[in-house]
Design brief:
Helix 2 (42-54) runs antiparallel to helix 3. The protein has five helices and five strands. It starts with a helix and ends in a 5-residue tail after the last strand. It folds into two domains: 1-32; 35-159, Nuclear Transport Factor 2, Chain: A (Roll), CATH 3.10.450.100. The radius of gyration is 21 Å and the shape is elongated. It is α+β, with helices and mostly antiparallel strands.
Length: 164
């Protein structure tokens, strides 16, 4: 009888350790930001950015804004950065509806080998709809971003009819 209790206890400890490690690795995997690479297509770039903004503070504060920043074209970063300034811009009146929004739809308007334009519809946390034009461009200069799709422009939001 002692052996059964002893092995049961060892089994529970073993399972607890496995469970803890699994949770740790899942949390760590979620925390990593997706970095641009040349296998990520234009639609995916917009989706990655919007998904980050939808869950802005998950797993850490302003993680979604950082994710969006990483996929901004260097010229766009020059105009809107550094990151702290970009953070303030996204949290300002013009773009705050992107943060923690409820839903988004992405529709490709046009694309070529170097540029893709999307119409993005956002349902914000107050259940108001907004439309944006979201443009990405393939980076052609040498370096780590060569042939990566990056955001070069997001239009001002256009308010739409409220949802029911």
């Amino acid at each position: 009888m002692k052996k059964i209790v002893k092995y049961s206890l060892y089994g529970l400890i073993y399972l607890s350790i496995i469970f803890f490690l699994a949770l740790f690795f899942i949390a760590t995997a979620k925390a990593e930001l997706i970095k641009p690479n040349n296998s990520i297509e234009p639609y995916q770039v917009v989706k990655i950015q919007l998904s980050g903004l939808k869950e802005n503070d998950n797993p850490s504060k302003d993680n979604g804004i950082k994710q969006t920043w990483i996929f901004a074209h260097p010229n766009n970063q020059k105009n809107t950065g550094p990151l702290e300034r970009f953070n303030s811009m996204i949290k300002g009146k013009s773009y705050e509806m992107l943060l923690n929004h409820l839903d988004h739809k992405i529709k490709e308007i046009e694309s070529s080998d170097l540029i893709a334009l999307f119409e993005v519809t956002i349902l914000d946390k107050n259940k108001a709809y907004y439309k944006f034009n979201w443009q990405v461009e393939k980076y052609t200069k040498n370096g780590t971003l060569k042939d990566c799709w990056l955001t070069i422009m997001v239009s001002a939001p256009v308010p739409m009819a409220p949802s029911i």
